[in-house]
């Protein structure tokens, strides 16, 4: 622990405290006045309150909610736990130290809060990265072995994230401690970081943390969500809106007829729509009917002059299935069977 000399604040705007490895600069003991401290106390109290209640509600909803996404349930709970630790075990102590300009809590809490803060940031970053990677495989490669592995080993991935985050944050424990200093003939304490650490080692740690917690996650998230966005933009013009979805029961006759033939592509639950317009391109898609719990296979069109194109061509439309379409489907099926 440093043994600074006595200080006098007369005509002093900043204080330089000599330690065993360097100096600690203090511009002002208390960073804010009475009004500023009162405002920040209210603000930080609300922040802690909402962090506690909000993340607790997220955990309860994800555990007991019936409509929660099962694939993301573990990741969202992990995020809530990490944010809960940050809001409860870090925010009150760190901001009190900032407002008062000194450490007023137990000396043991100094390295603990620093450790929890770094670990929470690391875990949150890793969890967001894992979510992006999981969404990438679930959206673009749902049948791949990687997606299957992520689904079955989600707990292992999250545990590795906590271990990795705790390992990186553990370096701060041995280098963070309470340092005593004198100001206005009184002894105060400060929670100092990087005590008795060489400048080179500190730079290496900061650079490594920056790469692992910012650069690499940004790269992974940009690639994964960028690929998902491109796929959604490509397929958006081929999908019908919800209002254009037709009940499956309207095509039971056509489905029965098509299933009796062995030379067509119409099987149970699949409907094809023929369009002889040369300017129209079609794409087969599937629509899930909630009432019958069956899937309807339809051909979606992308042609000039359809709705959504602004009247000038190039518009994107979706073939609406009605009674006339059923007649065309029956005739088309008869031709294909011949």
UniProtKB/TrEMBL annotation:
<keyword id="KW-0675">Receptor</keyword>
<dbReference type="GO" id="GO:0005886">
    <property type="term" value="C:plasma membrane"/>
</dbReference>
<keyword id="KW-1133">Transmembrane helix</keyword>
<feature type="transmembrane region" description="Helical">
    <location>
        <begin position="154"/>
        <end position="173"/>
    </location>
</feature>
<feature type="compositionally biased region" description="Low complexity">
    <location>
        <begin position="251"/>
        <end position="279"/>
    </location>
</feature>
<feature type="transmembrane region" description="Helical">
    <location>
        <begin position="39"/>
        <end position="63"/>
    </location>
</feature>
<keyword id="KW-0807">Transducer</keyword>
<feature type="transmembrane region" description="Helical">
    <location>
        <begin position="115"/>
        <end position="133"/>
    </location>
</feature>
<feature type="region of interest" description="Disordered">
    <location>
        <begin position="251"/>
        <end position="288"/>
    </location>
</feature>
<feature type="domain" description="G-protein coupled receptors family 1 profile">
    <location>
        <begin position="54"/>
        <end position="338"/>
    </location>
</feature>
<keyword id="KW-0472">Membrane</keyword>
<feature type="compositionally biased region" description="Polar residues">
    <location>
        <begin position="324"/>
        <end position="338"/>
    </location>
</feature>
<keyword id="KW-0297">G-protein coupled receptor</keyword>
<dbReference type="InterPro" id="IPR000276">
    <property type="entry name" value="GPCR_Rhodpsn"/>
</dbReference>
<keyword id="KW-0812">Transmembrane</keyword>
<comment type="similarity">
    <text>Belongs to the G-protein coupled receptor 1 family.</text>
</comment>
<dbReference type="Pfam" id="PF00001">
    <property type="entry name" value="7tm_1"/>
</dbReference>
<dbReference type="InterPro" id="IPR017452">
    <property type="entry name" value="GPCR_Rhodpsn_7TM"/>
</dbReference>
<feature type="compositionally biased region" description="Gly residues">
    <location>
        <begin position="306"/>
        <end position="317"/>
    </location>
</feature>
<feature type="transmembrane region" description="Helical">
    <location>
        <begin position="75"/>
        <end position="95"/>
    </location>
</feature>
<dbReference type="GO" id="GO:0008188">
    <property type="term" value="F:neuropeptide receptor activity"/>
</dbReference>
<feature type="region of interest" description="Disordered">
    <location>
        <begin position="300"/>
        <end position="338"/>
    </location>
</feature>
<feature type="transmembrane region" description="Helical">
    <location>
        <begin position="204"/>
        <end position="228"/>
    </location>
</feature>
<protein>
    <submittedName>
        <fullName>7 transmembrane receptor-like protein 1</fullName>
    </submittedName>
</protein>
